[in-house]
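Model it.
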Amino acid sequence: MNSLSVVIPTFNRAKFLDFLLERHIDTFKKHSIQVFIFNNASTDETEMVIEKWRKKYKLITSETNLGKVVIADKSLEKALKMSNTKYRWLLGDTYYLSPELVQHVSEMISTNNEVDLYVLNLNGLIDDIPSSLIYDRNEMLANFGTVMACFGCQIYNEKIVSQGDFSKNSATNYVQLDIIMDYMYSNEFCSGWIQEFSVTSLNKPGLKKRNWSQGPLVLEIAAKNWIKFIFSLSDGYSMRTKLIAIKNFGRQTNIFTIKGLLLMRLRGNLTYVNYRKYYKEIGLMVKYPSMVLVISIIPKYFLKILCLIYTTFFKREKIKQWCFNE
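Modeled.
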């Protein structure tokens, strides 16, 4: 049996889960990778989807919460603790693991199974840091904090899961990173960074995926919660490192780039009221907070007109798509 498993927390996402398993089941079979699914009291067809794929692949194990829906971070904890393998790959249902990536990870684990954490690239986001083993926690937070916060980009050694205090930063959307940072602070560790293979987005026509970065909680999660989480980390992480991690998150997720801010405004999630509510946090995330203020008061209809003129004149269909995809 493979010492690597995939763990999937899910809640009312039957169609996404079905497509995720459809795209990955052959790869999981090839490497005999166990799949653990925690169903967080879903009321849709999630159970039917799990049973459908379990008939096709016997190494799928599921657990269903029959009580009240638990918060997302608790669901994540339960999914990780379901697994009994040494390495546990946390996977969201809108991410794709290519056969080449899974093959590479399997080979890495088979040749070096003393690594505490494997961190994977996300859509080729980091292209200037070659694959390597890293032993410095400040380097890990500064350079890879953003990708480590992403479902699908981290593979945990069982030691991190068993020692993790999942309650300390619950309901922040970052508990999956918090247990890593705590482990790195308290233990000598070795992390494996994999640059040349990326976790990528999984898209299916007809399935419109929306996450928190596209919703009304974007500033609360990406600014307030992220900064609160980073500053809650031990003094073993330097203030300089923490500030770098804060700014990198806004830039690398594209949430606090000009494009991201304009899109946030078009969706109605960046308003003057929200700017005033989070202006202190915004000041830490971006170099020119006044730019965010200006964007927050630009009329949405004016932005749409400018976008339509620009994309029509320069034939930029991709920009037009994100401009009007509210």
